[in-house]
Amino acid sequence: MGKVQPEEKDVKEKTTEFSLVRVKSTWKGQLGKKINKDRVDSVSAAKICENVTEKGTTWTVISPIVFTYKVTETQGLLDPGNDTLLLGHINDPQQLEDIKKSNKPIRRFVVVDQAVFQIYGSKLTEYLEANNVSYKILALPTTEENKSMETALKILDEVNNFSLDRRTEPIIAIGGGVCLDIVGFAASLYRRRTPYIRVPTTLLSYIDASVGAKTGVNFANCKNKLGAYIPPAATFLDLSFIQTVSRRHISNGLAEILKMAMMKHGGLFELLEKHGSMLLNTKFQTDNSVYGCSTLKAASQATRIAIMTMLEELAPNLWEDDLDRLVDFGHLISPALEMKVLPSLLHGEAVNIDMSYMVYVSKERGLLTEEEKQRIISCMDRLKHSGGLVRMPLPVGLGEAERSRSHCLCICNKGGTGSFTFFAAELTV
Question: Among residues 147, 214, 264, 283, which one is catalytic?
Answer without folding.
Answer: 214
